[in-house]
Amino acid sequence: MQEVKHFIAGEYCESSLGRTFDNINPCNGEKIGVVHEGGEAEINAAVAAAREALTGDWARMPEQQRTEVLHAVADGVEKRFDEFLEAECLDTGKPYSIARHIDIPRGAANFRVFADAVRSVPTEAFHMETPDGSGAYNIAVRKPKGVIGVISPWNLPLLLMTWKVGPALACGNSVVVKPSEETPTTTALLGEVMNEAGVPPGVFNVVHGFGPDSAGEFLTRHRDVDAITFTGETRTGEAIMRAAASGVRDVSFELGGKNPALVFADCDMDRAIEGTLRSVFANCGQVCLGTERVYVERSIFDEFVGRLAEAAGRYKLGRPEDPATDMGPLVSHEHQRKVLSYYELAKEEGANVIIGGGVPAMPGDLANGAWVEPTIWTGLPESSRIVREEIFGPCCHIQPFDDEEEAIRLANDTPYGLAAAIWSQDASRVFRVTPLIEAGITWANAWFLRDLRTPFGGCKQSGIGREGGVHSLEFYSELQNICIKI
Ligand SMILES: NC(=O)C1=CN([C@@H]2O[C@H](COP(=O)(O)OP(=O)(O)OC[C@H]3O[C@@H](n4cnc5c(N)ncnc54)[C@H](O)[C@@H]3O)[C@@H](O)[C@H]2O)C=CC1
Ligand SMILES: O=C(O)/C=C/C=C(\O)C(=O)O
């Protein structure tokens, strides 16, 4: 039976109060192991270790060596690829085919890309004139921000945690990570890799636990944490922002979404179907960038709905390790209850259930897992809760539109603004429409095409700030302007 411990000051440790909680396999509801539950004492110890690390070897380490250490972390993840893969898929239930190509390689890449980015970003310098004629130079020096609190979610656990930890360490900070209580294992495993790679003790710390009145809240409230980065639900973001207000700490938030796809009659239908299928159902719909609202030009509406439903109907639900599996279960029974409550609501609101809408019949032990059917609805008004609220499951509502203006209006009629996808072969339309969409990321004829150097984040209630490439360096470093009079 697996036992997941905290990782503080380079060592694994148990909870001071001796409390643990169960880690459950969402495929069959079986207990995988126990996780040590941290409280105020563990957060205090981790933050103190992180603070201490900022005065030791890590602070004195030349940038070139820090880059090499972070490359060694990436190598270490790759060396133990199968271990990370199995742990991630056991915690989440996601298919190996996804984690093998996305979660684990990206978990490693996040260290390499940001370590290299730090070394390639130029220093800003301005010469200025002065009244005495001798002038002055302004040089912007990039320094670590300090101790970074990282609160990460369960949908892409290693990927989204390293997306924050990679650049934070590349900029010379130390971190305290509170991984999601649903998926603690790969974050804990990374501690071993950090030690093997030569990351000094205290630079990377992990405390397990829950959100409110637990490790998450204690971390975000801690006055010795200099900045907080969070991915998760918008309401949690509001709570963390309130905590960060005390002490005026900086935040970077990537929050919820209710992302639209606009499918125009001039699209390449095969590509639009394949891309929308992935954007709705990949990772069992548990991707913040995923599509939950599809708007299709009326002349191709029936064909599109029919073909998408047919493709979704071919999806094979199964065990993570089965190469034939397209979709796993949801992350937990709690999340299953939430998604199924929306499936019920859709029926109550009068939706046409094109496909799915319930719990699939799974064989043997899988019958106890957190499974839901891939689901497509049509026929609901835009005011319906199904169309307005983030469900975070394998489902979408499809609605027809008559012209470009209406499509843009429908896409933007949401409090969220994370991502959007447009499907059209008319280049003028693509250039005209994409900037009018209120979203931090808009794809045209693609979905989830990610270059780690590009700005990533949401507008409206989908987030604050941008991470990715130089934007991550902006958040994870403090710029000091040094003005030198000649
Ligand atoms: N990437 C995304 O956009 C994600 C969105 N979600 C959405 O959020 C819904 C709820 O899922 P949860 O896992 O409960 O998301 P959540 O936003 O509540 O949890 C994410 C992380 O925040 C921590 N947390 C929760 N409350 C906190 C607080 N007051 N202070 C500090 N940390 C706190 C949790 O322990 C976890 O590590 C999902 O149904 C889905 O709609 C969930 C995960 C990822
Ligand atoms: O960075 C990526 O490529 C993926 C990001 C996905 C999320 O942020 C999410 O689903 O929460």
Automatic annotation (TrEMBL):
Pfam families in alphabetical order: Aldedh (PF00171)
Coiled-coil positions: none
Active site: 254
Domain of life, source organism: Bacteria
Keyword Transferase: no
Listed name of the protein: Putative 5-carboxymethyl-2-hydroxymuconate semialdehyde dehydrogenase oxidoreductase protein
Domain Aldehyde dehydrogenase: 16-481
Keywords associated with the record: NAD, Oxidoreductase
One GO MF term attached to the UniProt entry: 5-carboxymethyl-2-hydroxymuconic-semialdehyde dehydrogenase activity
Enzyme Commission identifier(s): 1.2.1.60
Protein family according to the UniProt entry: Belongs to the aldehyde dehydrogenase family.
